[in-house]
Amino acid sequence: MRIHILGSDGFxxxxxxxxxxxxxxxxxxxxxDCDLLSLESVSNLPKFTEQDVVIMVSSITRLKxxxxxxxxxxxxxxxxxxxxxxxxPPGYFVFLSTIDVYGANPQIPVKETxxxxxxxxxxxxxxxxxxxxxxxxAEKDIPLLILRLSGLYGKGDEGKSxxxxxxxxxxRDRKITIIGDGSDTRDFVYVEDVCKLIWNGILQKxxxxxNVATGESYSIxxxxxxxxxxxxxxxSIEYKEExxxxxxxxxxxxxxLLKKNFPWFEFTNLKNGLKLYFETxxxxxxxxxxxxxxxxxxxxxxxxxxxxxxxxxxxxxxxxFFDGDRKHGYGGYSYHPRFWTxxxxxxxxHYKLTEESSLLDVGCGKGFMLYDFKKALPGMKIRxxxxxxxxxxxxxxxIKEFLNVGNAKYLGEFKDKEFDLVISTTTIHNxxxxxxxxxxxxxxxxxxxxxxxxxxxxxxEERKRMEAWNLTALTYMHVDDWKKFFEECGYxxxxxxxxx
Length: 500
Description:
It is built from 18 helices and 20 strands.
């Protein structure tokens, strides 16, 4: 058996890759491997046979775009695949659709016999894709399993799911904003259950269309209360008036057809799913630098001042960078309590640090932040490394003995999980990309918790400003690309971005 996953780089596609790689020969196709919008590109797929299973996840989701153009593209992808499998029929085909084909306000309970009534371009594209695939699969006698998915959540959902948005807000902001009064009910499915359901379908060669729902719906308020059980701190709730298209207050499913097709299948209930969600190590975006004073200098003016010679001098990280001309770096780097005192208190509170805690600062400079930690928690074990011999030799006298010259890419002197917290602020991006990866992995290795900040941008304007303004960074990218980068490194700590 060979399994082919079309759209392997998204949330569901990645989980399917992990799940099936341990079961059968599995190959994933992202846009760079196969552009489903191009019939020529699709024709380069392997010639499928009876031994092949194709799982089609690819689509332009509503979160990316919900327009006439995106609808046409989604339908074109399904049409191109339909044409290809007509000539090269696989042994089995799985298509991931959506319960949104029933519309924004479907008949309750939602079941497969309900008349489809798509209310936006995305759901209409899914319904049309179902039609195209059902037609060709019927003609070529290919068993087809169509799964109309309700709300998914789980490892790797990267802020896309309702559960993840609630979770991230609770962790990052200690506050959750609910649109409406929170009484809306939804049915949420753990992503691993979808993987298992597909595997069951493959084994039985099920030829069917089913809604994937647990049959148990929860209100947003109920979900928030479940989340609270896993948090060791309080969170505030803010309710905002609903705007835009009004969606159903209640979504309740009759999943009797799914149970008939898969009688032994059991879903992960939401409470257990949330527990798994909290237990899964994950990258968390959190701004612990919020109270760090912002520079009043005009970044555009600074950008105009920078030359390649200035960057060359700055990247030596010597006296000129710390205490030389402003165009080469800090223009005088001296201690002032207004910079780190408040930030240190926020970090202590967030990570629940105590006198018995241990902390490593990677890229510590002259040790000013470590000094403020030592003032706040005199018993804390602190260590700092910096690539600059000048900075270490001219470090804050009170904590100078805890500072060493070192490179973030190699923390070999430290044991695995030696520190309760590793902090690295605007440091690792000064390394070339591969060395930056090494540094991230080392930080992950030596720290039980970690907080890293890097240069990044969120839009084209910030990108241009960053490229002109940047003085020392060798690795800098879009926020989304940093998240993927951290994931590739296996980093599960906290992070935030410095944007110009």
